[in-house]
Amino acid sequence: MAADLAHSWLTFSAPVAAARAARRPLVALESTIIAHGMPYPENVRTAREVEALIRELGAEPATIAVMDGRIRIGLSDDELERLGRSDGVHKVSRRDLPAVLASGETGATTVAGTMICAALAGIEVFVTGGIGGVHRGASETFDISADLQELAKTSVAVVCAGAKSILDIGLTLEYLETHGVPVLSCEQDNFAAFYTRDSGFRADYRLDDAHEQARFIRTKWDLGLAGGVVLSTPVPEAAAMPSEEIDAITRQALADAATQGISGKAVTPFLLARIKALTGGRSLATNIALVKHNAEVGARLALALSRADQGPPA
Ligand code: PSU
Ligand code: MN
């Protein structure tokens, strides 16, 4: 009953509805990256290219946002444009979802917000850039992204290029461990650090093959162990940024946030915007490359999960 009621807030695009009817694999995509993560028009162009990549690999992309009082699962080109062009699009995490839906305003969903909507829509795989986490200095500020709590309880696999070093990556991984969220890595042993390949911290399990990843995830959920799984994959070597450069820029961005007294949900967008400005355009190219790579990994995982009819050995 409650699930049916929640479901009545969803609107599926025609391609996503067709894929659902045909039981084809779906890949959810977030919209904060479009509205708040990249400048126009690169944001809209990248969103379309990411969708095309997923389709080429045989899965159906479902970009998620809040528009006109509905949770939209799958957006048309015009709707992507509207989201990417306009100012005043809300950043929608768990806390914000009722407000933006009820007011009929436009909202871009974060990792947490997108996970909630994807789960309602029955989508198991979600591709993003980087997850939120425990911020540096969190022992003073208590600033821990709602993404981590969502990973603790909502059963969606989140494919990412790790987390940005604006965060305390060690504490982020500790938090995930406490909440029983497995952190998988493919292509390398360590958790990725978004602009750079290596965070210096090991992921929990390295699983390079999509079928192994699917088997792990299906087993978790078969056991009734609700909650998400993080699948980290590093930015392609050729697109990675030099780590000394990004470290210095990150320190500068954090210092600017402190000086300006930025707090609450404004912290992450502020830091992302500062990093973008301080790197000139170069971080954008890295960002685009990693999201596309994540999309390929996510599409392969969605295909493998749709075939994974595993269960325990006989
Ligand atoms: N980290 C990034 N890029 C992003 C975000 C985080 O490298 O675009 C966005 C995601 O939507 C993420 C959100 O879910 O910021 C986290 O915000 P907060 O730290 O306020 O929870
Ligand atoms: Mn925060």
TrEMBL record:
What keywords appear on the UniProt entry?
Glycosidase, Hydrolase, Lyase, Manganese, Metal-binding
Residues reported to bind Mn(2+): 143
Q: Which cofactor does it need?
A: Mn(2+)
Its cellular-component GO annotations read: cytoplasm
**A GO BP annotation:** nucleobase catabolic process
Paste the cofactor note.
Binds 1 Mn(2+) ion per subunit.
List the catalysed reactions. D-ribose 5-phosphate + uracil = psi-UMP + H2O
Q: Give the first-level EC class, as a single word.
A: lyase
Q: Which Pfam families match?
A: Indigoidine_A
EC number of the protein: 4.2.1.70
**Superkingdom of origin organism:** Bacteria
Annotated positions binding substrate: 91, 111, 145-147
Active site as annotated? 30, 164
**Keyword Flavoprotein applies:** no
Task: Please describe what this protein does.
Answer: Catalyzes the reversible cleavage of pseudouridine 5'-phosphate (PsiMP) to ribose 5-phosphate and uracil. Functions biologically in the cleavage direction, as part of a pseudouridine degradation pathway.
Family the UniProt entry places it in:
Belongs to the pseudouridine-5'-phosphate glycosidase family.
Q: Cite the record's note on assembly.
A: Homotrimer.
What protein name is recorded for this chain? Pseudouridine-5'-phosphate glycosidase
Q: Source gene?
A: yeiN
